[in-house]
Amino acid sequence: MRIARFTTGEDPQYGVVTGELDEFGQPDEDAVVVALAGDPLYVGMKLLDQEHQLSDVRLLAPVLPRSKVVGIGRNYAAHAAEMGNDVPAEPLMFLKPNTSVVGPGDPIFYPPQTSNLHFEGELAVVIGRICRDVPPEQATDVIHGYTIANDVTARDLQKGDVQFTRAKGFDSFCPLGPWIETDLDPQHFADGVRVQTFLNGDLKQDGSTADLIFDVPTLVSYVSSVMTLLPGDVILTGTPEGVGPMEVGDEVEISIAGLGTLTNKVAQR
């Protein structure tokens, strides 16, 4: 089930998106979104007698983390190598503020503090209930679903600072979308799902979740052993090799098989 957050020009709503995805991760022209009564993370799946053509609504970030976005660094060996780093012995965690989250079609703002802004296409895990110390074999019980993320990074700031907060924490540095897919098991990604990033239509990243060093259940277990996870928290699972710079005016598309495509343009802050 694809759960979206959308607006028709009034207050944001949640809804269920119908229709099939084509090979480019786009829904068919007859796709509709059936409205839900409130946030399904808190009130459950209560369908309303109200639907809209998907083409008539504006999609928003499918989740607004009330607490945190947890990033995982160097979780693909080839990406660690391209950055001149070793593969970590255990998951390398960092935090992005929830104010960094934006939705499909929203601008990524290029701040004046950096001159080397990079894209990082990633699979994102959305937590469905409060949890702590989750065993890997029980990760499915606490996962609400999956979406696509762009872990935007000011690479020069990342290299210059001791930690990643500034480099990854600016407003608009965490696009999420286009929706949350709830009907997938972590094994779906362990078997290998293609992750692609396009810059102005040119393929830049072409990886597979089969190459994750630490898989989804391991990440949920590891993060929850350190901090309590709350409904709506997001875990970014790491990016494949091929990251690179973006400039003002560029368009970034991230596609993950079965999840769709997340598109954002870069704008001057």
From TrEMBL:
It holds the Pfam family Rv2993c-like_N. Residues 68-266 form the Fumarylacetoacetase-like C-terminal domain. Residues 1-62 form the Rv2993c-like N-terminal domain. Gene3D superfamilies: FAH (2.30.30.370), Fumarylacetoacetase-like, C-terminal domain (3.90.850.10). GO terms for molecular function: hydrolase activity. Keywords: Hydrolase, Metal-binding. The keyword Hydrolase applies. InterPro entries: Fumarylacetoacetase-like_C (IPR011234), Fumarylacetoacetase_C_sf (IPR036663), Rv2993c-like_N (IPR018833). This is Fumarylacetoacetate hydrolase family protein. It comes from Nocardioides deserti.
